[in-house]
What we know:
Largest sheet: 2 strands, antiparallel
Number of strands: 10
Radius of gyration: 24 Å
Distance between the termini: 72 Å
Low-confidence stretches: 336-368
Mean pLDDT: 83
Structural class: mainly alpha
Shape: globular
Strand content: 5-15%
Strand order of the largest sheet: 1-2
Amino acid sequence: MSIVPLSIPSPPDDWKELNITSWLESTFGWDLPFTFRITTYALIILFGIIVATFWTNRRLRAKGAEPWIVLDVIIWAVPLGLVGARAYHVLTHLSDYFYEGSDPWSLFNESGLNPNSVWAIWSGGNAIIGSLIGGAVGAWIGCRLTGLRFWTFADALAPAILLAQVFGRLGNYFNHELFGLPTDLPWGLEIEASNPAFPVGLPEGTLFHPTFLYEMIWNTVGIVFLLTMERQFRLVKRTVLGLTVPVPVGDAKPRLQWGTLWALYMVWYGVGRIWFESIRVDPSQVFLGIRANVWGAIALVVAGIILFLVQRRRHPGVEPSPYRPGREWTPEGAVDSEATYSDTDDDSDEAATGSELAATSGAKSSPS
């Protein structure tokens, strides 16, 4: 008997959601007049957001930001990210909502909530690329209100958002969605023939590429890539459990700042997404023979490359602070540290003021 799995089973349908009302009634003997359910996908997405928030907070604190200032940013980024995710999905799947006899703008119909409404986010349909656009707008608003530099926040978020996306793709697995072309590989994904996205004409039992798993692996490797590029690692001999072994140690200060780490995230994620989208079989708008989300991924890669090159050219020095000039935060009881700045940007780029440049020049010329 072979010990190698011949396929990956999809989770049972019962795992797609939790019936909170039923659990409360069976646990406490209550007779509740309402039904409340929450999808497993939503719980996983929420968990991913929480984990990413904690990690981003830790990374911002390491840069000198106030503890938990990340909450003042994500309170804008998350809601607008959800709006962007839904809007992008609808725009790239117009035929699913706008057809003869449809009522896409009505939240309710004669039977209750309208599952085919453009507002029916609970029915599925959220695009990550759209969430990046909406989330970026929200993050910019949050950074303006808190005084944080937008690109500092983006760099702190870059590996954390990849981790959140790992959890998000796990949610797609529970939803039995976003699978790829048919395959006979040992890790082919089992999808029930009753699934609305099951390709017409294929026999029941056909296996499909588990694109959710491919993207989870790609994003996990991407986290390692970003952290390695952010700080140049070298092997240093350390004693571990009485043994002298080489241990990778990174530079104390990151070598990628001013949004360049975020730019690498855009390139990494976009490259992977081009391939994953190309082998998916779920319906999508097609332009010039290419799926709309592939075009979106290509745009993400191009924008990331441009952002990296522009920021490297405009910001050759290190960030003087995670805050914009005049909005700095100093821990209670702390003294000002030596300023280090070597950029020459104008005010629109959140560059340092003239007094900061003078202070930097004096700091560099003073004896140690």
